[in-house]
Structure formats: C-alpha cells, structure tokens
Amino acid sequence: MRSSPESITVSAARQALRAANLRSTTSRVAVLQHVSAAGKPVSHADVAEVLVPQGFDKSTLYRCLVELADAGILNRLDAGDHAWRFEMRGEEHVSGEHPHFVCVDCGQVTCLPDIEVKISPAKGTKSVALGDVTEVFLKGHCKECQ
Questions:
Q1: How many CB atoms lie within 10 A of CB 99?
Q2: Contacting residues for 95 by C-beta, under 8 A, at least 6 apart
Q3: Least enclosed by CB within 10 Å: which of 82, 94, 96, 110?
Q4: In angstroms, rounded to a whole number, what is the distance separating the alpha carbons of residues 85 and 87?
C-alpha cells in the first residue's frame, strides 16, 4: 500500500497542465493539489467540501475535474453509484488498471494497487471473450462499517 500521500507542488501542477495543453488556472491547480493529496479516489462533493469554503465555485470545480480527466491527468471512475470519483494518474494509475474497493454502506472508494485480480474461465469451460476489462471494483463492507 502507498505511504501517506503528498500534494503535488504548484509548479508540478502547472507543468502537468501545460503538458496537457490546458491553461494553468488557480482552480485547476487547486483541484490537482487536492486530488493528489487525497491519495484515493474522490468525488466532486469531496473536492467541493474542501475548496468551496476557500472561495472556489462548485460548478467550476466540476468542470475542472472533467477537463482534467478528459486531458488524461486524472482517472475518472464509475463505481456504479451515480457519482464519479477522480484520482491522479501515477505509477499505479497510469492506465487505471488496478482494482478498487467500494464500501456498500458508506460509499468510500479505496485504491488497491497491491492486489492483482485475474479473471479466468472456470475449469471445464471454454474461454469466454470478455473484451478489455478496464475497471475492477470489489464491493463489501469497510472496516469502519462492519
């Protein structure tokens, strides 16, 4: 598992935005810093809870999250609960191909970069062509909700 996450610097955020051909706005930098510091997938509500009191507009934050995901700086996850979660792309997040755990009680989503999930056909059956699996979500009850 990862050690405690650290926020990227303003300079690193600006570089990432320039590399993605996006303007370096205060809102985008703040969103990148918040998402990177979270160290786990966060929803728009999570980001707004922290950044709106600092003077950022809720709609602007949503647009930033979507633009950053469209630009490939963030991964956008759909855990099936009608709320996108966003996470930084990093070593274990380059393609987003690592499993996540979703608590069915509180909705908390956690990265599981140290767990490998393999999907294979049951013994005695012919292999089934699934296509490319892009997201794996394990669902259950987190330690806090048990």
A1: 16
A2: none
A3: 82
A4: 7
pLDDT tops 90 at residue 58: yes
CA nearest 19: which of 32, 36, 30, 35?
A: 32
The token pair that represents 40 in the structure block: 């786990």
Distance CA 137, CA 118 (A): 13
Sign of CA dihedral 130, 134, 137, 138: positive
**Going by DSSP bridges, is the β-strand pair 137-140/109-111 parallel, antiparallel, or unpaired?**
unpaired
Would you state the pLDDT for residue 131? 66
Residue entry with tokens 């963030």: 74
Q: Is the pLDDT of residue 80 over 80?
A: no
pTM of the entire predicted model: 0.70
Write the secondary structure of 74-142 as one string of H (helix), E (strand) and C (coil). EEEEECCCCCEEEEECCCCCCCCCCCEEEECCCCCEEECCCCCCCCCCCCCCCCCCCCCCCCCEEEECC
Residue 84, token pair as written in the block: 């996108």
Residue whose structure tokens are 């926020």: 7
- What does the pLDDT average to over 113-122? 72
